[in-house]
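User: Show me an example of a complex going from sequences to structure tokens.

Assistant: Sure. Here are the input components:
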Amino acid sequence: MKKIYFITSNKGKVLEAQNKFSTINIDIVQKNFGYPEIQAEKLEDVAVFGVKYLQDRINEPFILEDAGLFIDVLNGFPGVYSSYVYHTLGCEGVLLLMKDFNESKRDATFRSVFAYKEPKSKPLFFVGECDGKISTELLGDNGFGYDPIFIPHGSNRTFAQMKTDEKNSFSHRGKSLDKLINNFGKNITI
Amino acid sequence: MKKIYFITSNKGKVLEAQNKFSTINIDIVQKNFGYPEIQAEKLEDVAVFGVKYLQDRINEPFILEDAGLFIDVLNGFPGVYSSYVYHTLGCEGVLLLMKDFNESKRDATFRSVFAYKEPKSKPLFFVGECDGKISTELLGDNGFGYDPIFIPHGSNRTFAQMKTDEKNSFSHRGKSLDKLINNFGKNITI
């Protein structure tokens, strides 16, 4: 079976990718290699820099991913720094920042960018997005991160109120992974 | 006159450094070279990565600096990401996050880290700090960034209510620069 390294410390992301890639008979192997993530406004810039750093060090096909929650009325905050903000302010901090905005001003987007790189080829990038709204309170116990305050369009419940399958049907990461997989047999040869 | 490159896009920082370095007969020359700033919890890590990136590209003595505002009760937020947070949430966003904390819980620290690197020597790092409190409202028109909401210990006014000389007597950047300059003739030869 062909294999692709997934450069990440996040086991949950690996499982999600393995699940998708198994349908096309490709093995996703986690490599907790570590690479510098730069400060930038766009996830794409973080991914491009990561690929450049890793391509001199890994001589096998690999993927990496960066994701974030972008809130319109907060100029995209927490965006690329979603993980840092989650660990310092938490969902409660984000709700506080949103407290004076009514439903019409609570639009937000979860974004995921996958990079795929194989030796001697240019990297390819795949973006997945999930539009939705920030809830007015913490709702639900499932999931992680900002799941308790994000209600995707097409639902009236937060990600944390959904079972995994339902959440994945909306998921930004599911969409970017689908795009990546659909590209095999087109741009990508392994 | 000996010269040192200051790798920064910030003219204000350059002027502050030129002012200090003129006392020891060293010319500070701005070089808007650009280098990747990584996502990290500590300013020191950002500076270390910057030096590693630049040392292969610049064969002259150079300095760089990173700075941030660390608020105790917000787990150090906005910290290394102070510039990004300023441009997305602004001082108003920080005040909102602090609204339920009384004076005893408004401690914060401005930090500055300078790196000095000359060819064939290990980099040296100099930290300057200014402890203070976050005000409960925007006060003053001078300065920039978080100056209108930061009251340094030893004063009852914000940086933005002070003239430049008074602010500089407290300044984190002034302190890290003083340490750097005091080191000339000890660790550093030019």
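The lines above are the inputs; the final block is the predicted structure for all two components together. The radius of gyration of chain A is 17 Å.
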